[in-house]
Amino acid sequence: MRGLICGPKLAACGIVLSSWGVIMLAMLGIFFSTHSAVLIEDVPVSEDIFHDENPDRIYALYNKVGYNCFIAAGIYILFAAFSCCQMKLNKQKEYLVH
């Protein structure tokens, strides 16, 4: 069968993992975009930014990290689509064999 790369168990595992990745990264992207104070340790800031009275530089870093999370969630969506296609091809192969 053309295009079949992985088996049904690996395709199902890919669907589950990518679904969790999309949910987790989308939530992180939302929390970073809303400038959640709990996530300050995950923002790549230097010590001099904290002494600045204008928080716009920190907010820009929060937005940048949130944007990166949304990009990673998009990549996981592509991986989920690939896994779904592999699952469909495995079902077709199973149907043709029997």
Gist of the model:
This protein is mostly helical.
Share of β-strand residues: under 5%
Radius of gyration: 20 Å
Mean pLDDT rating: 89
Helix content percent band: over 70%
| Count of helical regions | 3
Question: What is the number of strand segments?
Answer: 0
**Based on CA inertia axes, which overall geometry fits?**
rod-shaped
Number of structural units classed as domains: 1
Largest sheet: none
* Alpha carbon gap, first and last residue: 14 Å
Q: Return the structural class.
A: mainly alpha
Task: Spell the H/E element sequence.
Answer: HHH
The parts where pLDDT drops under 50 for at least 5 residues are none
Task: Break the fold down into its secondary structure elements and pairings.
Blueprint: H1 8-33, H2 47-50, H3 56-97
Could you name the key traits of this structure?
single chain; 98 residues; mainly alpha; 3 helices
What does this structure look like?
It is a single chain. By secondary structure, the chain is mainly α. The protein contains 3 helices and no strands. It has helices at 8-33, 47-50, 56-97. The model has no long low-confidence stretch (mean pLDDT 89).
